[in-house]
Amino acid sequence: MGPGFFPLAEALDLGPEHCSPWLLERAVRLGAEVPFATAADLLRVMTGTHLSASTIRRLTIASGRAMRQLELEFVAAVE
User: Fold this and answer.
1) Which of 3, 14, 24, 75 is the most exposed place for a label (fewest CB within 10 A)?
2) Does residue 55 contact residue 63 with C-beta atoms inside 8 Å?
3) Rounded to the nearest 10 degrees, what angle do helices 21-33 and 53-78 cross at?
4) CB 33 within 8 Å of CB 43
5) How many Cβ atoms sit within 10 Å of the Cβ of residue 64?
């Protein structure tokens, strides 16, 4: 199976990590719940994949910004 196209990964400027959407979601969920260094350690233990704490931080912040933008657009549409 060839490489896929993941709009969320592109929108979040995922970069050279080439994470699957599944891994991206887990990294962001961990980053939202625990310190980023802890999230990096947990992700490595649970998946065998290494992402740095700074990468998890960047992805988590970008995901939060994207979610906030969607919420603002939704509110504007409802108003």
Assistant:
1) 3
2) no
3) 90
4) no
5) 13
10: left (phi over 0), alpha (psi -120 to 50) or beta: alpha
- Residues 61 and 79: their CA atoms lie apart, in Å, by 27
* Maximum alpha-carbon separation in the chain: 46
Per the document, the length of the chain is 79
Summarised one tens digit per residue, pLDDT across range 21-69 is 889 999 999 999 999 999 999 999 999 999 999 999 999 999 999 889 9
User: Within 10 Å of residue 68's Cβ, how many Cβ atoms?
Assistant: 10
Q: Which residue reads 């740095």 in tokens?
A: 52
Tokens for 31? Answer: 């980053």
- How many CB atoms neighbour CB 50 within 10 A? 11
